[in-house]
Specification:
Length: 278
């Protein structure tokens, strides 16, 4: 898979960046770092569950790698958590390496920041207190059941007004959105998360934007069905993650400069090919 062809070893990556120390994971007792954590059937669909999800180091390593390898400057994250800490660290590295170029050459009003949206004030407070993130901007928003083209879905009521080059979809949970449409909502263990926020802002996104959907396969299929622009798509069964890249010609000189510097010639190779497994 193109996105991770340079990620040769999870063990070596962890040794280089010590991500486990950032989130207080005892690596000696963790188990295989390149394997998925298997949980019970109702682990993520329990409305009374009040503990943070346990760390999945393989997922977090890949997210860190994506931010660094693609020279990401701005992240929109749906759902705060351990990923917020990982994004903060990766953006610090990018700011140090690429800050001068971005400042001098790109049109980017607030580079090297992660904007994390969540509907749970408690988790935001916990993250702010314990994570010690410097480049993460936390945004609280209520979440509501609504529609997109008459399809029932959910939206955060308010989003940060930014233009991200990486979007990470890992929230909201299915029990948070309020309201219903004709008696239908997502607040049942047999329902599924169905966020449509990305669809609402699709026309603002710049070529080269990458979307990562963590699990949430029904939601990812909903996005794939309704996204209208030219997206490369790949689902990794091993990772249980979905990836969308906006593979279009640059919109102008500044978008082209960012693509040239951050993504390079391989982006244009993908642009020239159809149905590429990126």
């Amino acid at each position: 898979m193109y996105l991770f062809k340079k990620l040769k070893s999870y063990k070596n990556y962890l040794q280089k960046y010590s991500l486990h120390n950032l989130i207080d994971v005892d690596i000696k007792n963790y188990g295989p770092i390149d394997k998925k954590v298997v949980r019970s059937a109702y682990y993520s669909v329990n409305p009374s569950f009040q503990e943070p999800y346990s760390a999945e180091l393989d997922d977090l390593i890949r997210l860190h790698h994506l931010v660094i390898s693609r020279k990401v400057t701005k992240i929109l994250e749906f759902g705060v958590g351990k990923s917020s800490v990982i994004f903060d660290d990766a953006l610090k590295i990018n700011k140090k390496k690429h800050g001068d170029f971005v400042k001098k050459n790109l049109r980017n009003s607030n580079p090297f920041e992660c904007f994390s949206v969540d509907n749970n004030k408690k988790w935001i407070s916990v993250c702010k207190k314990n994570a010690k993130t410097k480049l993460v901007k936390y945004h609280y928003s209520k979440c509501t059941v609504s529609t997109f083209n008459n399809r029932i879905c959910t939206y955060y009521d308010k989003l940060p007004n930014i233009c991200p080059d990486l979007i990470y979809l890992d929230g909201p949970d299915q029990f948070s959105p309020k309201g219903n449409i004709r008696g239908i909502n997502t607040r049942d263990p047999d329902r599924l998360p169905m966020s449509a926020d990305i669809l609402a802002i699709e026309h603002f996104l710049l070529p080269g934007t990458l979307i990562v959907v963590d699990g949430r396969t029904a939601n990812a299929r909903f996005l794939k069905t309704n996204l209208q622009r030219n997206w490369c798509y790949n689902y990794s069964k091993d990772y249980d993650q979905h990836f969308f890249e906006l593979t279009e010609k640059p919109l102008g000189i500044y978008n082209k400069k960012q693509i040239d510097y951050c993504l390079g010639k391989e982006f244009y190779l993908r642009l020239s090919q159809k149905n590429i497994n990126f």
